[in-house]
Write a structure and sequence with these properties.
Shape: globular
CATH architecture: 3-Layer(aba) Sandwich
Order of helices and strands: EHEHHEHHEHHEH
CATH superfamily: P-loop containing nucleotide triphosphate hydrolases
Strand order of the largest sheet: 2-3-1-4-5
Largest sheet: 5 strands, parallel
Helix content: 40-55%
Oligomer: single chain
């Protein structure tokens, strides 16, 4: 679909688990709503149509890297066609907590061909802005493990045979994902935010970059009197 046929704007956030991206996108949603903008929010792996199959596959540890990737692509495609694209056509600012770059990073680390992944998601519009919240691995690890000591099988990358210890496997997996994100950030020109900065400082940087790039007055809901 041609970009000129879409009236809205698409903004995505990416980063490792524990990077603070979800906090930032929710603050961004609150700020844009406060400005009177029409805002729609979508998050990774949240399609009701696909969620059951994903949960069963993970629980029984049946997912190969390709199957894992295709299930998430199906989830994304469902949300894209039913939610994201209609909102963009309707002139909304669409905020995505993770977008196709999550697959580009995680699935490539699991062994999927990067070129194949880019073709798989070729139907999706590139966002107007993508913020990559980059955080040192040790900081991200401490945030996740302190808040979630019992790591899930796929979350820890245990399916890859990296280590029999979940925390060690998680660290190896996340380091590889971070390295892939760094390559993606350069390839696609993602807007990098230092995840070690304070929450308020990060949010100020995000808002400044958005205001510089997007005329938000065009996306404010009209008040009928």
């Amino acid at each position: 679909m041609a970009r000129e046929t879409v009236r809205g704007k698409l903004i995505a956030v990416e980063g490792l688990d524990g990077s603070g991206k979800s906090t930032q996108v929710h603050l961004l949603h609150t700020w844009l709503s406060g400005l009177g903008c029409k805002v729609f929010f979508s998050e990774w792996n949240s399609s009701e149509m696909v969620k059951g199959a994903t949960t069963r596959g993970k629980k029984k540890q049946l997912l190969t890297p390709t199957t894992f990737s295709l299930i998430h692509a199906t989830d994304f495609a469902d949300r894209y066609e039913r939610q994201i694209l209609p909102a963009l056509k309707g002139g909304y600012v669409v905020l995505c907590d993770r977008y196709i770059f999550t697959s580009f990073a995680r699935d490539a680390v699991r062994g999927c061909d990067p070129a194949w992944l880019r073709r798989l998601y070729g139907f999706a519009l590139m966002p107007d802005m993508v913020f990559y919240f980059r955080l040192p691995l040790d900081v991200a690890m401490s945030r996740i493990i302190d808040g979630r000591p019992n790591l899930k099988y796929f979350e820890a990358g245990m399916d890859m045979g990296l280590s029999s210890d979940a925390q060690e496997s998680f660290q190896i997996f996340q380091e590889r994902v971070m390295n892939e994100y760094d390559r993606i950030a350069e390839e696609f020109g993602l807007s990098v935010i230092d995840g070690t900065l304070g929450i308020r400082v990060q949010q100020e940087l995000v808002r400044e970059r958005i205001e510089h790039a997007i005329d938000l007055s065009r996306y404010r809901a009209r008040v009928v009197r």
